[in-house]
Amino acid sequence: MVQFVDVARMREWIETTGIETIVARLVDALETDFARWEEFSKCARIASHSPTGVIELMPVSDGQTYGFKYVNGHPLNPKAGLQTVTAFGVLADVSTGYPVLLSEMTLLTALRTAATSAFAARRLARPDASVMALVGTGSQSEFQALAFRRVLGIESLRIWDSDPGALDTFERNMRPLGFEIVRARNAADACAGADVVTSCTADKTNATVVTDAMIAPGMHLNAIGGDCPGKTELDPAILHRADIFVEYAEQTRIEGEIQQLPPDHPVTELWRVVRGEAPGRTSAEQITVFDSVGFAIEDFTALCVVRESLRGDSGVPELDMIAEPEDPKDLFALVSAGAAALTRAS
Amino acid sequence: MVQFVDVARMREWIETTGIETIVARLVDALETDFARWEEFSKCARIASHSPTGVIELMPVSDGQTYGFKYVNGHPLNPKAGLQTVTAFGVLADVSTGYPVLLSEMTLLTALRTAATSAFAARRLARPDASVMALVGTGSQSEFQALAFRRVLGIESLRIWDSDPGALDTFERNMRPLGFEIVRARNAADACAGADVVTSCTADKTNATVVTDAMIAPGMHLNAIGGDCPGKTELDPAILHRADIFVEYAEQTRIEGEIQQLPPDHPVTELWRVVRGEAPGRTSAEQITVFDSVGFAIEDFTALCVVRESLRGDSGVPELDMIAEPEDPKDLFALVSAGAAALTRAS
Fold first, then answer.
1. What is the pLDDT of residues B2-12, one digit of tens each?
2. Is residue A238 within 8 Å of A287, Cβ to Cβ?
3. Mean of the pLDDT values across residues A191-205?
4. Chain B neighbors of A163, CB-CB under 8 A
5. Rounded alpha-carbon distances, angstroms, from residue A71 to A296, B75, B79, B233
6. DSSP assignment letter at A257
7. Model confidence over A46-59: pLDDT tens digits?
8. Which domains does chain A have, with CATH numbers?
9. Which one of A166, A264, B230, B271 has the fewest beta carbons within 10 angstroms of its own beta carbon?
10. B41: which DSSP letter?
């Protein structure tokens, strides 16, 4: 039987545990997993593109546990009342190949993305960073704000979105939580005076949401929205004067902001910074970019945190997904009536 | 919500519809999908190997519907009372990226593999074929026998397995169904006089289960067990004097019997035979090999047949896997209590 975390159960876990507490747990778990990066067997995710979006599978294994996530990205979905991004994930036991957990991951992906952003920013943003610009205030934005408050102590936000409704929603959700929020007139206004710029827009185009002129020395760019071939947000001029950090270069060169750069442009994989093998931020003037596309290990980490939270809970629903004949070499026994039935009929 | 076909429901469908009826439906559906092969966006499956087995993801899309299967192969599993192969699959709507169906596929894979074998043999075996050797009588074998009876009218079987218990099980399951069964002394004895040789063993090694001397002119080899790097069953000498047919050459060159051959050894993709673009069997003396590894389109086809069978059935259980906020840009609304809770606590 496969443990099943449906949307209701995920919501209950998040609401009772608290978003910021879960973010903190995820950051701790990311710390552990990024430090053992080389133990994972990795590949770039497998994407199936269509005119309206993309469907991706993201598998990874640490030799003990295998995990994968199914995730889509369909920017036009909200016009039909649907989510741009939805996801579910599975953990399996490597030694037997049997799946052990199926979980909703639309909510969990929002949490893990925010946790990964904050996890990276702790090493890449200036230690005195106190103001974050949020360019794009869609479904991911509140999670980003809460993660940066928990991990970096940032409480002052400058927000911008081309959709005024998305700004209204963000303000309505976040003002009661004690953030200081400035509603900017445009993306440039949002970036002015920010220490961290989080760009998170959904259009599947090579957009220039953040231009070179908006970026000042010392800023850290948390670039989330450029995560697909043909989908970028940053002016390439920014990339040329910044130090660029990525999750898994092989995948980011296909999907990230650096798809705009030559394939040999130097980048640093974040796990090397975590292990102390490469420097993170080295000066207060440096511009750092976390060119984040989302990598399978982060989902693996998040699913393992969910699984850990279920330990000892006997009330977790289970799905009957695995056919289990009494004699494992006699699968036919499970459906033998289907052969006999036909023999009688014919 | 995602429709869910669990093991119990799959069993019920198979038992009430009949294995051979489902095989016939699958063969019709394979005919349609192989004839439109070029409409599918395809890739070799993504395998994660470990010392005890392999876990694979097999995605494919026809531009309207996306499907993938999760499947493992762990030859030592039966010693622990577990299945060698288990599987589940998902269909999704390409236009929105939303999953629509989750189904058990351990049983369904057995059916689709048998249907694909018979589908290929109808074009590659001699029209007068009446005797099949089954080398390896594990979980797949009964399904093969029923499919070949339904599609080719073969009722005479010569069986062999290194495990006498597996032979006992096969005989117990199949004798009541009207097959003429000869229990052979070894693999050579099983092949003697057979028109079709189905090899389906589980060991993850380069074995030579079927040697060159066992194979006579006019035979069709339905080679199922060689489906993984380092896992083959046929003496390569057979391959050198046979005409070889495959599902998707890119994947079969990695996983099939032809991994033993130079990468440019000529093979024919079966869909070209289906479309009349390449000949199947051309003479009674020819030796044909269907070097089958299992391809994603076959799983897609099978999942679509299952989905079709559910049409109009209002009793199909649904899983709450997709978080659906009222405002699609306000995912946070689903868990806002999780932010407020923490603010109060901190």
1. 999 999 999 99
2. yes
3. 90
4. 329
5. 11, 31, 36, 37
6. G
7. 999 999 999 999 99
8. 2-107+298-330 (3.30.1780.10), 117-294 (3.40.50.720)
9. A264
10. B
